[in-house]
Amino acid sequence: MSDIENEIVDALAARIHADRIARGWSLGDLADRSGVSKAMLSAIERGKASPTATLLVRIASAYGMTLSSLIARAELHSGGLLRRADQPVWRDPQTGYVRRHLSPATDMPLELIHVELPAGATVEFPAASYAFIRQQIWLIAGRLHFTEGSVVHAMEPGDCLALGAPADCSFHAPGPQAAVYAVAVVRN
């Protein structure tokens, strides 16, 4: 891993640990609420494991927040301008999914996220990760098959999709190139 990726893993580890302690939860409590094993949570908190998007979504959901919020809390500092060089970038070690948090830390309920999903890759999120948010997905390049519950939305560049009620979802880039998209998240 690069130094930047190590810094993000370390920041996430510290944030997950701090949020767990702030709630007065043991590793077992967080494991029960997230569905992630105590051993994996311990490895993540010690910076010995680089968590996948799926694991981070489960942990964030247990805390009642989004993946974006969890990463933002780990990486962002206050300020109205967040320059590209300072935007936190996180890569899912399992799929190669790259997520850039575009929004500066503010009290606004809006977050903007830029994602690159490699061709052939799929990322799945449980309905619980959408419980406290509303989202729109705007496809910039490539193709994206977004599954929302039992409905598959085959998206082409320029298409914009407003998500409905919380449902299990998956993002799949059928190729031949990566799917590049922006997600606008509004916290309820």
Brief write-up:
The protein has helices at residues 3-22, 27-34, 38-45, 53-62, 67-75; strands at 89-91, 98-101, 110-117, 122-125, 133-141, 144-148, 151-155, 160-162, 169-172, 179-187. The chain is an alpha+beta fold and 188 residues long.
Structure overview:
With 188 residues, the chain is of the alpha+beta class. It has helices at residues 3-22, 27-34, 38-45, 53-62, 67-75, and strands spanning 89-91, 98-101, 110-117, 122-125, 133-141, 144-148, 151-155, 160-162, 169-172, 179-187. The chain has a 6-stranded antiparallel sheet with strand order 1-2-3-10-5-8, with helices on one face. A 4-stranded antiparallel sheet has the order 4-9-6-7. Helix 1 crosses helix 5 (67-75).
- How much helical structure, as a percent, in the residues? 25-40%
Described by the principal axes of the CA atoms, the overall outline is globular
Write out the strand line-up for the largest beta sheet, numbering strands in chain order: 1-2-3-10-5-8
Q: Spans with pLDDT under 50 lasting ≥5 residues?
A: none
Computed over alpha carbons, the radius of gyration is 16 Å
**Hey, roughly how much beta strand do the residues contain?**
25-35%
Summed up, the helix count is 5
Q: State the end-to-end distance.
A: 35 Å
**Can you count the beta strands?**
10
SSE topology:
Blueprint: H1 3-22, H2 27-34, H3 38-45, H4 53-62, H5 67-75, E1 89-91, E2 98-101, E3 110-117, E4 122-125, E5 133-141, E6 144-148, E7 151-155, E8 160-162, E9 169-172, E10 179-187
Antiparallel strand pairs: 1-2, 2-3, 3-10, 4-9, 5-8, 5-10, 6-7, 6-9
Helix pairs in contact: 1-5
